[in-house]
Request: fold
Amino acid sequence: MSILREIVTIISVLAIPGLILFFLVYGQFKRVRVYEAVVEGGKEGFTIAVKIIPYLVAMLVGIAIFRASGAMDFLIAGLQPLTDLIGFPAEAMPMALMRPLSGSGSLGIMSEILKTYGPDSFIGVLTSTLMGSTETTFYVIAVYFGAVNVRNTRHALPTGLLADFVSFLAALFFVKLLFF
Amino acid sequence: MLNYVWLGLVVIGILTAAGRDLYESIENVYGNNRSFPVHVEDRNGVDEWTAWCTADELRQKFAGIEDADTTRFRLSFSRQSPTAGLLYPESGAPAILLTVQEAFGNDGSIPCRVISDSNRADLLYVSFSPIRFVYLKRITNAALDAAALAVKIALGLIGIMALWLGVMKVAEEAGIITIIARAVRPVTTRLFSDIPDDHPAIGAMIMNISANMLGLGNAATPFGLKAMEELNKLNKHAGTASNAMVTFLALNTSCVTLVPATAIAVRAASGSSDPAVIIGTTFLTSLTATVFAVIFAKVFQRLSVFRVRERKAS
Reply:
């Protein structure tokens, strides 16, 4: 297990420099004018980033209003019977609800929980697993669809949120199974 | 769906804030028009004093403080006139004083009116100007900050996007993207049935998902946005998500994670004895979520609620 972990860590460090080196050298080998291609492709970076702005503003503002109002406390209290039923610890609920909404928000909650309950406690490991195993669904939807001007996202949100719900249950299951 | 969820976030947020403010003003949580005693300890400057107060005494103003407590907490007081001054709560002050501090939103000072006790020179009675609409002010500030932050995040993407899109361009022209796409054909033909086998979208998606697996968020976003652009070229309904886009996003948000880099870093920072212990649980959790995400995407795309509607010409 620890050897595997070591290998994975090394790969993640080498990935970016390795990828750049491989792409450029292979490109040159294939007679691509690499510098010209990099500059040409890079031009798009600006337009895409600017296209995203209105989508990201709308999304972050909506989430910020919801968070600052403290409505989440009521939501957590309202969901309490349900979470008690499936044995999801109440202490980790803020994390579960914040994770799809805000990356920085859930990072803050995670640090808070680790400080209060300890990083190696059941709550601590569960929270860390939640943090690591899902993305910020609302942010990804805003950015990815924003880049191609898609306004009707169809089933993207329900799919993302249900998948998040599955990962809460899975995290609870695997953390209990492997550690506690 | 996103439409209503977003509307819900905004409306619920504003109504909750308004409701809380209404409740707080009815209950007079901030003890508007009530005062509390402050003991002046040291008049070390002419107008800069250190002072203290107990939670019990603070309750004369803020009825909401629950636990009876006679431990002193420290305050600094800066006198501006015989009847007015600025109060600074120091560390360890009760939460309500910090909320008051936030509500005045100055440099951390709380402007207050002061009445000296005629019998005891070291005792002051302090009251604040009325505090109202704490939550509505808070959501207003949060909304404005979030709008500014969104622009900052988007502009911050420019550099990293330009770099990776440039590198991608080389890979595309050299034919690497097509090679990657061909290599994973058995999987992708099933997941993305409406995309040609060696389309550049496949290559970009694979690179996005690989980067996410390794916890390389910075590189993942440019690949992902490139993939979305390529998918959009195949999209027949501009402005509406295609099935392939949603399946890709489902893969992306639940993405199988080998290195949860951020979570491990936070664990290390908070003194974990084994920060990387979550690698196993994270991998299994995200693998489960990914399988379900693809199933959900495939099932939902058939539902009539989510069917692509032709836009009516206006």
